[in-house]
Every structure is written in structure tokens, then in C-alpha cells.
Amino acid sequence: MNPNILPNFLKNRAMLTPNRVAIVFKDKRLTFKELYEEAYYRAGVLTASGVTDKAYVGFLVKSDLYTVISLLALQIIGAKAVLLNNRLTVDELVYQLNDARVGFLVTEPVFDLVCKQIRGQMPALNIMGKQDATSYTEPIEKKIIHLADTCTIMYTSGTTGFPKGVIQTYGNHWWSTMGSVLNLGLHEKDAWLCAVPLFHISGYSILIRSIVYGIKLVLHDHFEVDKILRAIEKEKISIMSVVTTMLHKIESAVEKSLPSTFRCMLLGGGPASLDLLNRCMDKGIPVYYSYGMTETSSQIVTLAPEYSTTKIGSCGKALFPAQIKIIDDKGNETSANIPGEIAVYGPNVSQGYLNKGKSSMDGWFHTGDIGYIDSEGFLFVLDRRTDLIISGGENIYPAEVEGVLTAINGIIDAGVVGEKNEEWGEVPVAFVVKEHNVLLTEETILNICKQKLARYKVPKKVYFLSEIPRNASKKILRRKLRN
Amino acid sequence: MNPNILPNFLKNRAMLTPNRVAIVFKDKRLTFKELYEEAYYRAGVLTASGVTDKAYVGFLVKSDLYTVISLLALQIIGAKAVLLNNRLTVDELVYQLNDARVGFLVTEPVFDLVCKQIRGQMPALNIMGKQDATSYTEPIEKKIIHLADTCTIMYTSGTTGFPKGVIQTYGNHWWSTMGSVLNLGLHEKDAWLCAVPLFHISGYSILIRSIVYGIKLVLHDHFEVDKILRAIEKEKISIMSVVTTMLHKIESAVEKSLPSTFRCMLLGGGPASLDLLNRCMDKGIPVYYSYGMTETSSQIVTLAPEYSTTKIGSCGKALFPAQIKIIDDKGNETSANIPGEIAVYGPNVSQGYLNKGKSSMDGWFHTGDIGYIDSEGFLFVLDRRTDLIISGGENIYPAEVEGVLTAINGIIDAGVVGEKNEEWGEVPVAFVVKEHNVLLTEETILNICKQKLARYKVPKKVYFLSEIPRNASKKILRRKLRN
């Protein structure tokens, strides 16, 4: 009995509770049996196209039913999904597709123009519409799952500015679902609303949970507050995952309270203001403030509402299977209330990056984020990893934007920082140093950025300086820039 | 991040939710923090007595608060608990203590006489009262758990009649809790009533679950139906584990229905009559009929109440992380509805027996029980493993009783079978063949049995025959005996 072998998640769920509703998308409603049959058929179509268990398959898609079916088809085959942020530019997409050695790209008509440009740079790439079905070959089904096998790859930038593919195994996803259930509980009638992207861990993790838990996933392809509130009522939603900007809109739109069937608003993807958390409390919106990242396969630290008044602003404690600690400059664990770098450990934590080796040597993943743990074990996050800017739930690494800026002819140096913004939490702004006598306007610079960077990464403003403040070892003094 | 390393269960729970009630026993009520502190202190007392992480520590105890504390103290040290059925005779106990190479025995005054006799046979055994505390040494705490490490040993007999120590690792127990939560769910206010022995997997698994789930364990040291019903009301019990005899008494005593907070009656430990299940349904008692054994670290197959009317008599489907199949004489999987031997697989299944190697070669544990799986995947158990008799939730292996009978001077041959009994489900009855001209009464035979066998194993009747019916290969034809 190898403890790291389990039955295929969806196949097993379809066998256990075939008639429960698995997913609702717009006017479509599939049971677990139907979802499995659709995914199995899609696995046959992908097999006919040459996708095997060795393949890394890119996904450039929106969040809808056919994306879910295609993602689950990959699990049947045992192929790996490389989930691409659909807001990236062609250059960014090509970098990730090449880095992950992707041979197949699943996409849809709305991305035709982008795909045409990608094909220009990657002529051998096999691009498939996610609903196309020219031929079918009986798939070789993975009836059992090895938890150590790779399930998904999601890119994250890190401090160097070069995106790295985070390897998420079936085990990482499985243990994440277990950590979550021991904190949030599981009710027979639970229904989870997903209006966050499936290409992010926030969305993909909901998909895994709905299958493992056997609960209904209600999928929205974008966030629209009126539709969300109607869905919560109509579909008897009990849990929803949100980022701060969504919570902000929901709190504003909720007049008195949410329906009594609603029991958990899982808040992730960056800081929330105490003011917002307080207003949610007043309206009885049960916020579970959490901390997590792509490398931890979603939340790893979560505050339960029983502490929402006494520990406001804290992300809570580590989920049951995980551990957290705060380390100082020398790598030693700090005492209670002493800030330092947040390090995490657990079976939900990724073992490393694609083609780049392990993410850590001692088993502890050093997040780069700064925080402290109080005497009762509650984590408070002070600063996101090395100047990470979080805008509407998307991560922006200054180094990546700075790389684009300094590559522009006539720019000598650049620094990017986050500026507080009521709607998005933060937005990036740039400081640049021009060569003498060079004519370079803010508009020109931003136009170049828009070609190279996903829209959300493009600075909202450009300030011209004579010098970027740096310390002795030439690190940008971002605090100084912010002031 | 080794996926098979987790924080110590109790220490972690005490850190996560220190103030939740962990356990209620009579008029005592401890939070998780208090329970951890008590267990930690006890770990120090055991350490002072010489117990290390290498030790196998026997438990000859009743189910009460101090048993729980001592068991959890062993988890802090990393020592292994050998859980002894306290109804066994001295000979049976000594066999198991020797087999497990037990150096320490935790016990209590009510077993003084038995312990004195054990010491007569095992002079080197270190016998400790579970509440004694002569000295204290700071324990070396296992802050993390390796799931592959042994947690408990529980003896089961098997067809040869020689008891074997089932190795249950921390991982087996962990995965059992995960399989259960995905089937039964987890509510914030759950409270689990335990009136089954802690030395059985049925009781020990409740202890593990209450810690991992962070829910209240209400412990009774024996089953008394009036007290049970009062506790369900007063402690707002939501889940209770029962064997058929208990369910029988509860069903009789419940006048109209159980309180609305009660949501799951987990029935294990042998067959239940359709009549009883029907009567429970009439009174709204939500029975989850299950199948499991010591080797599967409690339930592995469980029927959800949503199928209680359509699949009455079935044990349901395998828990999410586990698999079941039916195999024929040649070891091949049978088709739907074709009976054969039940084989099980999963991370909750024991890897083997103490000092006796693996329980199976192909990873599948062959239970010896006979059953079939219908076309929808529901398991129906037809016959328990090789003539196993289940009496009030206790397993009786005919071969073991037959061994005692044939060792009696003047008995040539013997056969033991189960006889249906309204109160106990089954009781053992014996058939013996005496030597010619030997004077041997039923009373004499039973008196000898009482010295050698736990009371529940002693035959209720002895029939004298001239010959035990056997087949060509000399196997007893038990069906013939039953008729």
C-alpha cells in the first residue's frame, strides 16, 4: 500500500457520487458522471492529436466549462497543464511556452490573433481549439494517481524578473484540499463560487476541491457583482474565493447581509484594509483572511472567523498539515513578535521550479515576504516579498517591469514601486533616469511597456528623476522612491 | 518538503485551537491546550520510567481520561502503543506481550490480579499504573511525525488461530481520518461520542479524529443506553460509533427521534439485520453502515444515508483514498454482482504484522471476507472471513477456540461455529468428539475454556458428536455443523 497512490480524483468521484451536481456554468449544469464522461471524451480527442502522459500542454483560455473539461481531460491522460495568464503579451507567453517546452497549446477563438503571433515565433507548436474534435482515439486512462507526479505548472516571476514555472504535483493539490477542509469544514450542501481565473491557483484549487469534496462548483468567467450576488442566492453558495477588489465591491453591494447558506468568504491574493474587514464584519460577511501563493498551491495560513474580531489584520495560523516560521538574516528562527522572513513547510508546498531544480535546500520554502508571528501563533504579514506589488490579485514583480524599462533606448536606470489604490489595492508606478538630451515622453515609454508587458503590469505613471536612489550594494531603495 | 512529514497531531491542534473543548469524561472537561499539557506531563513521567521512542508500551486499561492522556503521551515521545483487549486471559495477554517484545505495561488497579499473574510469567516487565508519578524527566518531544512511523499495534487472530500484531502507522491513522471526513463531512460544532473500547480501532480512531478535526470527544467507559441518550442531548453529540448490539439498544430506547444536532450513527463491527436498519430509518436514526477491520485502521467502505433506502444491506463504497475489488479463486477481479474475496487497497491499510513481514505482496490486502460489488459500485458483504464469528463487535476466530478444545485431554476433535443471537449478533457454540470411555462434561470443558480464553470467546454450548464433518482436504465443513 504505497501511501502516495490514490485513485484518479474525477473518475473516483464520478463512481462515488455520480448524480451530485459537479459544475454549473451559465445555463449548463453537469453531474460528476457527466463531467467525467465529457472529460473522458475530450481525453480521447487530445489523444488523437498526439497528447500523451509525457506532454506539457499550454492553456491560453478563459474560465468556462470547456476549460474545466479540457483540464480534467489532461488528468485522465496524465499530461501536465501549463496554465498561462491570458493577460500576458505575446513575448511573455512565448517565453513561458518555450521554458516549459510546451508542444501543444489549447486555446479558443478569442485568442486567435495572439496565437497567430505565437505561431510566428514557434512554428512547431500544435495549437488546438478547446472545443475542436476532428478525430478520437481511445485514451490510455490513468486510473490511479501518483501523488509525486506533476499536475500543473504555473508561472511566477520572483525577484530576478524572469518567470519560473512552479511545479504543482497531484500531492500538492491533494494536501491543499486536506488542509483547507480541516479548517473550513465540509457540509453536504456546500457549493463553491469561482469568479477568480482558473489559470491562477486560486481558481484551479477550487476545481480540485469540488471534485475531492464532491461539492458543486459554480463557475463565472468574470467578476460582475450583481451576477455574483444573484448566484449566491440562487445556487445557495456557501463558500466563495475572492481578492480584495472583489470583496470591496461585494461589501458595497450587499445591502443588509448575505443569505444564511453563505458561510465562508475566503480572501486571498494580498492585503486588505482593516476598514474593509470591519465593514464586512458589520454586514455579517464571514471573511476568512488567508495567506498563500502559487508555490503553496493556494492558502497555507488562514484566519478563522472565530478570531476575526480579536486578531483583525492577521492571516491566522498555518493549515493543519503545514508549518510556518519567521527567520532572521542568519536563517535562525525569531522569537514571538519579532519580524523576519516568512518560511513555510508542508506537503502542499511545491518542491521546485520547472527545469530549475529545487526551490529550497532545507525543505522550508523561503517566501521573501516579511512578517511576524505573535505569542499565540498568529501570522501578521508586514511586507510582501521583495517589493512585490499586488494589483487586483495579480502579482507584479518590479524587477520584471524595470527590465523592460531599462531595455528602452535612452533609459539609463529605472525603479518601480507600488502605489496604494482604493480599487486595485496597489498599482505600479515607474521612476526613470533618461540619457542626457534624449527626447522620451511618458507616452512613448508606456506604449513600449504595453507591447512587452501584460496590461496590469504597465506602470500607471512615469516620473523622471536624475538618479535612482540605491544603497551601497546597488540595491534600489524602494522606500525612498515611495516617499 | 517531504509529503510524509506532518506536525505532531496533538501539539499542532493545541496550537491551532487551544481553547476548544477536546474531551469530556464524566465530570472532567479538558481543552486541547489542557489535554496537551496533561499528555506532556505524562510523557515526562514515562520518560523518567525509561520509556523512549523505541519502546513498545502495552496498555491494559479501561477507556477513560487517563488512558487517553497516556496514549497521547506516547505520541509525544514517539513510543508505540500495544493496545491489549482487557477481556483477554493471562495466557492470551502474555502471548501478545511477548510477541510484541513489550518492556513496559501501563495499567490500573482493577487489573492488579491479572498483572500479578503476568509478572509471574514475565518477571522483567516494567508495570506502571497509568496515574502513578514517582518522578519526572523532561521528555524528548517529537514535534514532527513521520507518517511511515508505527503509532499503534492491535492484535487480531486470523485463520491460524495465532494472534498477529497489526502495525498501524501515523499515516494509516491520518489517511483514515481523511477518508472519513470526505464522506461524513465536518461541521464546526461536531462532537463524537465514543462508547466503544479505546483498545479497538473503533475507539482509537475516534481519538485521532477528534484531534485532527479539532472536535469534542465525549468518552464513556462502558455502554449504558440511558447514559448515552442523556449525553447525546446534553453534549449535543453529532456523531457516534456503534456496533450492532449498541444500535439495537439505542433503537429500542429512542421513543420518537434523536435530537436534530445528531447527524451520523456510524455502524461497524459486523452485520446488522435489515429489520434493525429499517426500524432505525423509521425513527430517523441516520445510520452509516460501514465495513472495516483492524488492518484498515477502521472503516474503509461506508454507506451514506442518501442510499440507505435504495441500497439497504450494502456497506456502500470505498472511502475516497481507498479502493476495493472482488477477486476469484485465481486472483482475478470478478465482474459486477459476482461474489468472491474482498480485497482492499489504500493508504489507511496496514502494511503488515509485527515481526511477521508484509500482509500482502501486491499491495492489495486480501481480507478473507466474501462479498460482491453491484453494477453501481456498492459492496455487499456475504460472509465474514473464514468463519469469523462476530459477537457484540468482538471478533472470534473458530480456529483459536478449537485449538483450546483439542488441547483438552480426552478430546479428539472439535469444531466451533457462530449461532445467531438477538442480543450479540452471534455467539460461539462448540462441537466436540470425545475419546471412547472418557468422562468429560460440558461444564468441565467450559471451565477449562474460561481459563484459557477471554469470556466472549467461550462457547455458549457444547455438543458431543461421534465425528466432525470434514472435506477431503480435512477442512471442517462448518456449514454442515451449523445445520
UniProtKB/TrEMBL annotation, chains A, B:
Its EC number is 6.2.1.26. SUPFAM superfamilies: Acetyl-CoA synthetase-like (SSF56801). It comes from the Bacteria. The keyword Cell inner membrane does not apply. InterPro entries: AMP-bd_C (IPR025110), AMP-bd_C_sf (IPR045851), AMP-binding_CS (IPR020845), AMP-dep_synth/lig_dom (IPR000873), ANL_N_sf (IPR042099), MenE (IPR010192). Pathway: Quinol/quinone metabolism; 1,4-dihydroxy-2-naphthoate biosynthesis; 1,4-dihydroxy-2-naphthoate from chorismate: step 5/7; Quinol/quinone metabolism; menaquinone biosynthesis. One of its GO terms (biological process) is menaquinone biosynthetic process. Keywords: ATP-binding, Ligase, Menaquinone biosynthesis, Nucleotide-binding. The keyword DNA-binding does not apply. GO terms for molecular function: ATP binding; o-succinylbenzoate-CoA ligase activity. It catalyses: 2-succinylbenzoate + ATP + CoA = 2-succinylbenzoyl-CoA + AMP + diphosphate. Residues 400-475 form the AMP-binding enzyme C-terminal domain. Residues 12-354 form the AMP-dependent synthetase/ligase domain. Converts 2-succinylbenzoate (OSB) to 2-succinylbenzoyl-CoA (OSB-CoA). Belongs to the ATP-dependent AMP-binding enzyme family. MenE subfamily. This is 2-succinylbenzoate--CoA ligase.
